[in-house]
Fold each of these.
Amino acid sequence: MPKRTLKSLLLSLAVITVFSVTTHAADTIKVGILHSLSGTMAISETALKETALMTIADINAKGGVMGKKLEPVVVDPASNWPLFAEKSRQLLSKDKVAVVFGCWTSVSRKSVLPVFKELNGLLFYPVQYEGEELEKNVFYTGAAPNQQAIPAVEYLMSKDGGTAKRFVLLGTDYVYPRTTNKILRAFLKSKGVAEADIMEEYTPFGHSDYQTIIAKIKKFAGTGKRTCVISTINGDSNVPFYKELGNAGLKATDVPVVAFSVGEEELRGVDTKPLVGHLAAWNYFMSVKNPQNTAFISMYKAWAKKQKLPNAAKVVTNDPMEATYIGIHMWKQAVEKAKSTDVDKVIAAMAGQTVKAPSGFTVTMDKKNHHLHKPVFIGEVRADGQFNVVWKTSGPVKAQPWSPFIPGNSSKKDEPM
Amino acid sequence: MIKRMFSFFLLAAALLGTTGPAWSGRAVSPGIIETLAGEDSDAKIEAINRLVRDMPDQALPVLTAMADDSLSIADGRLVIMDGDTATDAVSGETLDPAPDNPEAITVNNRVRSKIAECLSALNLFSKDRDARMTSAADLSENPAPESLSIIEKALSAEKDSEITVKLHVARNKILLAASDPTLRIKAARALADNPTPSTRQLLAGLLLKNGDDFMEPDPDVQAAAAESLRSIDRQLAVGDTLGQIFTGLSLGSLLLLTAMGLAITYGVMGVINMAHGEFLMIGAYAAFAVQSVFRSRFPEYQDAYLLAALPAGFLAAALTGMILERTVIRFLYGRPLETLLATWGLSLILIQAVRTLFGAQNVEVANPAWMSGGVAVLPNLILPWNRIVIIGFSIAVLAAMWAILNLTRLGLFVRAVTQNRAMSGCVGVLTGRVDTLAFGLGAGIAGIGGVALSQVSNVGPDMGQNYIIDSFMVVVLGGVGQLAGAVWAALGLGVVSKFLEGWAGAVIAKILVLVFVIVFIQKRPQGMFALKGRTVESGS
């Protein structure tokens, strides 16, 4: 008898679960979140997962999208590039998500691209990257090279930036740094910088011993011309790099380092006092003052406290987090405009969407090229790990995914094929 | 430029005392405040010049605060913010209550260099010897042409010989741009005695071509500069080579620390221990845990946490090791393939356990203050303290381990059991217990290595995976069962890979080292030092 009750109990439980799942699924929209929560990229990507969850919770609290609640599906691709493709296939074909917010490194984006094209999924990619890509299934809410790398180098060559004449291009060995440096090399050549005044160096992912490289930089800098370092180092390698930079006494007034993948979040684990004056170029800094940003920061701080994130009292916001926030809101607006979560209809509705961004500017999705029009900021590291904005554009800049500095790009169309 | 020179002339005049100190107490004019808070760097530099010229007494605190990013503007006054307390920058009185919404004055690198320049000039006449020394050293690195008269004035008043040397360097650097070629030649020759990268840079700058002409028009000066440059290059080359050897030794000492534990568990005991990297990781996390305890309980002794972390790291890893030995590994002795798989499984379990306990993200382990920064041995050779400490530490651990294996009863037992288990058992050695203790010792040493690693690299659940290959490489290359072999292999690999890295880049260097090890092992499978023992296995 007891056995039978147990059986029937289990059976009814199962029925209830199945039933509740089906009714549940009917009035929610599933969205995928694809960020590394472990491995070398976790230092950067974990905060993006939190931002996405926060934004989704906020949208749900305000009534959801078309009256339906958003249901986040979080997966961990563990900084493992093939795993990114597997997990995105799982999100699209098993979980049937309407949209995926995710990826940081370009190598992970390249790994998931075929999956999104094959299954006609929709990916919002929130990080600055090297360009050279324009896919129908992807919206790029980070910066293209002309919205980050090129202005930063122009600044270093200007009087305020220190009139740099010699350039060290230092990066992690994968597609983003290699392509960015290819563009920068062509750009520098067009400005009359000689081949001998450019040094290119790469390190593997997770590299932790930067002694030799810093010694090389010092030597390269000692030739009578102002030298600067352009860093495309990604992930947790940045911590030992900046530690070594501080210990070796390489000051920003001698050899400034401008970084494209280092923000407030990456500097959290570093003593920033020896690093004052080193630079970063982004489309957003936490230190920017405006009402949208104040609201964004306090929202994230409250979220961190509620979720009991480690060091919740000291959490920071950064550019890719802002881009994630913008992306989710734009997708929501596009869905409401299209009155459907159908991928093709949403893609059509995305053109021309605008969001009042925490950067203080209204950013617009380009009508054709799937990239945002964003402002550019250049900031110097402060002793407290925040950035002082020392230069910015007067307004949003249109993205050029096909950089004119790469031969053959002029004939490419500024819209997905 | 003319304007700048004029202002510096006035700065000099102010400092020389020709203008009296009648300015003290005068309020900073609103014009200066507005430009200091503005966006335009040119205007800001001009305002700094005016400040120094008009009010040298107040300029010092204002510029010092500006350099520290603590200068703000509130209610039309310059305020120095220190946490929540505000001080009026001009009068020096504390403002109570502190003004609301002080607006911080931001400076960029260009303005910051300017401020540093002015501060050096202002501090040259300080009563404090260290302050004078610092500013003389700053000036000797990067002197502004306009500060020549101040430097000469300071030279005539300065008694301290070290400071005088620095000031002469600064003076000669400025005179390189003098209009009189004989002065330029003299300066170029004198600078040969100052073999620093900044001097090299300056002299090399003279020999650069601007279009078809050299930056330095006079051929005699060119020759003098070229000669000094050669002499400096010779002296700098020494520093470069020493620097490369040092980085190699520092990498080698890290490899040694990470491999030493494996030299016992794999080298002496013969367990193919794939979980070795995880013992390193446990040690590093122990350092993190001890640091957290110190931060919350004994904030005043924070810098000493590392000393407490060493025994903690040892114990945590040794205990884990002994438990694993008792429960899993001891049943697999003599079955290398199963050991390999089992320890690999254990490593995955340990990684996941730590991930669950501490989170998947890296944790922050800070260098104590005494391990930050570096010591300048030569002008172009700065040795970071954390690396020096780790080299010394690895020597200490090596000595301790040698002593344990060769001087203690436990060491004797370990050697006896690994050489002839049956015979040791017969004469009354508790072989099972010795195995457990030996494995615990190896794991504990790995834990200590992990504490050292936490000071130079990232601490995360997967960190051990980065070191397991290197550790096996060291032990196999050195010759299994050999401590001395491991030492030579670690230092050799460190120095070789650093020289390769300097020559071919980090990515290629890693590949070349692996290729080298593969070739070496093929030619000499027993490693660098073959064990010439009478172990039971080798006899059979």
Amino acid sequence: MKVIKEKHPLIMRWTHWVNFPVLTIMIWSGMLIYWANDEYSVTLFGHTLIKFFPDWYYDLLHIPSRLAEGMAFHFLFMWFFTLNGIFYTLYTIISGQWRQLLPNRHSFKEAWLVVLHDLHIRKMAPPQDKYNAAQRIAYTSIFVMGTGSVITGLAIYKPVQFYYLTWLCGGYHLARIWHFALTIGYVLFFVIHIVQVILAGWNNFRSVISGFEVIEEQPIPVKETPNKDEKA
Amino acid sequence: MKKLKKELTVDQKIKRRNFLSFTVFGALGASAYGGWRWLYTSPEETAGITAGAHKPLRRALNKTEIFFRRLTFNESNLVKTYPRSMAAKVIRHNSDIGSEGKMPPDNWKLQVKRNSGEVLQITLDEIMQLPKTEITYDFKCVEGWDQISHWAGVRFIDFINHYNLQAEAKSQYVGMETPDQQYYVGLDMPSALHPQTLLAYQMNDELLNGNHGQPLRLIIPVKYGIKNLKRIGTITFSNTRPKDYWAEQGYDYYSGL
């Protein structure tokens, strides 16, 4: 028998879908800014593995020589990014949704089992609530990262007036590196997130728009059945 | 189409909620995209004291700066200083618009326009008679690089007091221009009077050379490098924003740190 099961509250869906385009614009305008002093790369044993960014990449995205424009966009959309994040955080705290989100004392062990299960190495996934252990860790990390982006951003934006934030980040120079590294982190998160959403399927994806999932329930439960696989 | 009534209800509910939420989602998505296109293709501001930015973005820049200025600017917040030994030996040179080549101190005088219309003509020797202040701090370029460097000169506030420019310093802005008027900056008075703002004539204990604004330049650590004008020719005071080279190229007028 089909049953509607409420999953994501409206505010959670709203903040998720506001964040997606806003973060995209922040990353894009951030690249317009970064271009003006593009000194970062990943170097191991003297070999440059990745250079941020190669010329073809800049040209493809029309990034060069747009520093002023990038700053103007960045310093407008930072408001939406930050306010949306604060709104989400307050909601998560007040509604009690944080209980579903924060990792608990089992999560770190279970997350490993989830990964093994997702890689088809292990048959059974550990029982879960709204989010599985790996999701709890990933989504809590993304919250911490968002906070980090705001703090490191302010540390670069007003290093004199927010000198304590700049100090907290290990100085101006390091704050810029953190700010950049977090952005790379979002991109990696995004890739895994999208793969997981595709694998988890329509029912899961729809729940982030319409708020509910449809599950099959046995009319007379003979024994406890674990929830359907839920990912992303 | 003969199914159990109960089942149909659930299906109908699902359909109804799906339809509603996806319609709202699509409508919001489309309007967000429309809003973005509006902003991205919005016209450039009318060229004036500021120019080169999208009109709505310029408004946002100005408002955001007012917000942060009121919220955070405090002249007792000092720029972090470093031991003299950490200063770079070779100071990065990015641009010399308005300060190309050499300007021997003998060929130069600083002009300060007083409210009375009188123009003070001040030589480098006279400036070097004033109390000397040194600073080693992290110079920050709007491009994103920073460099610890050492400068020495007279604090702007000391300069104001010595030449009895207190009345002028009640204006809201200071304007500075190179002798050839090719480069110019506008500064809000609180930043100009900040205790670490210098009219600098030395870098690493040597008189400034051609690349770094010989013979006198502005060092204003509470601003990005673009405001640190090299080779000051004229100083003026006003209650409206003086013209500013990079603010005319789409950059934020305030550019404060």
